[in-house]
Amino acid sequence: MSALPTERSLRTTPEGLLWEPSERWVRGRKGDVTVVDSRHPLLVWEPSLPVPQYAFPRGDVREDLLRPAKNPRTGSHTGSQIFYDLEVDGELLENAAWTFPAADLAEYIAFEWFRRSGKGLDHWYEEEEEIFIHPRDPHKRVDALPSSRHVQITVDGTVVADTHRPVLLFETGLPTRYYIPAEDVRLDLFEPTDHHTGCPYKGTAQYWSLRGEADVPPNVVWSYPVPLPAVGPIKDLLAFYNEAVDITVDGERLERPVTPFSAMLKLSSRRAPGPA
Fold it and tell me: Is the pLDDT of residue 48 over 90?
């Protein structure tokens, strides 16, 4: 008889923070110096952020490398009051770490993730795998499934992609993304850009913008040339923002979803010059 799924082990603090223990072995490095080495980290979700962060027992942190922050970002990170600068090999990273303002988390220290604004560590590892951008949410699922659905993409009435061999990517909290072989995309209508983004679940993406004056934001198409193993089927396939183009699947026109990317796409469309 299979066991029933256990309840999610999240705890809530009066400040609105959610947290739970993680069983992953996590290390963080600045250059060649290991600053964090923990087999007992916590995952912490702030009310204003959709992704988790790690917090570590003080005994698993090189506290000898931390200094009370000269210019603490008091009030950020859900009202945190205690911030630290990190000094490694003569380099000082301001506000690289902090303690959350909750009794449950008082003996744990959190770190900025990577070198965002010059404050974060250089490399993070879960077990022996390097991880990027932010910790992966253990309650989030990402599946890349090959399909035979008929997927058609149009922009201002022009068909820019048409395929019967897409890979559908299902990611918790986001609309289904349709990844299409390059041979089934009108790449002559697009040009590559120097824009890149990173995803802890998929890898590093490269982008294309539509040529001409169509009412579509820049960097509307992306691909993962070296995806992470869990989503290997999307390698070198191209996806379009559902929020900005028209997608028809098996003859049914999909509604354009409203997602956290919607506002970003509108803003980039207003700010960026039109593609050449």
Answer: no
Q: What is the Cα 174 distance to its own chain's centre?
A: 12
Residue with tokens 């301001």: 94
DSSP structure string for 95-117:
EEEEE-SSGGGTTEEEE--TTGG
Spatial separation of the C-alpha atoms in residues 245 and 265, rounded to whole Å = 11
CA distances in angstroms from 265 to 211, 217, 241, 274, listed in the order given: 17, 6, 9, 13
What are the residues facing 158 on neighbouring strands? 155
What does the pLDDT read at residue 267? 65
Instruction: Kindly list the strands in the beta sheet with 252-253, ordered across the sheet, starting from the edge strand earlier in the chain.
Output: 158-163, 151-155, 246-249, 252-253
Surface-to-core class of residue 247, CB atoms within 10 Å of its CB (0-12 exposed, 13-18 middle, 19+ buried):
buried
* Tokens of residue 219, six digits: 């960097």
Render pLDDT for 77-120 as a digit per residue (tens, 0 to 9).
999 999 999 999 999 999 999 999 999 999 999 999 865 555 68
Compute the distance between CA of residue 177 and CA of residue 149 in angstroms, rounded to an integer. 13
For the chain, report the end-to-end CA distance as a whole number of angstroms.
62
Nearest in space to 169 (alpha carbons), one of 217, 219, 235: 235
Instruction: Look up the pTM and report it.
Output: 0.81
Distance CA 50, CA 28 (A): 22
How far apart, in whole angstroms, are the C-alpha atoms of residue 152 and residue 164? 9
Residue 32: both structure tokens together:
């060649």
The torsion of the CA quartet 55, 24, 204, 45, rounded to 10 degrees, works out to -40
